[in-house]
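HEAT repeat domain-containing protein: structure tokens wanted.
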Amino acid sequence: MQTALKNTKDTETLGELVRALNGRTDNTSIDIMLSLLKHQSSSVRYWTALTLENNPSPALKTKENQKLIKKGLEDGNNPD
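Answer:
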């Protein structure tokens, strides 16, 4: 799953795949999801933020990461 998320370019597919990481707290998964919060697609940012919203990982508790998650949720699932 992680390899697919790193290599997939299709935004619709990324939005679907990122949800499979729901609840994952390992560093690799968190790093992938944090990078997707900066994706050019608002849909990818939204689905990533929704996946991370209640994730207990300490890495997500920083002010910067909380801001990225909040922005992703605000993006909504708007078409790009």
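The radius of gyration is 11 Å. The CA atoms of residues 1 and 46 lie 19 Å apart.

Cheers.
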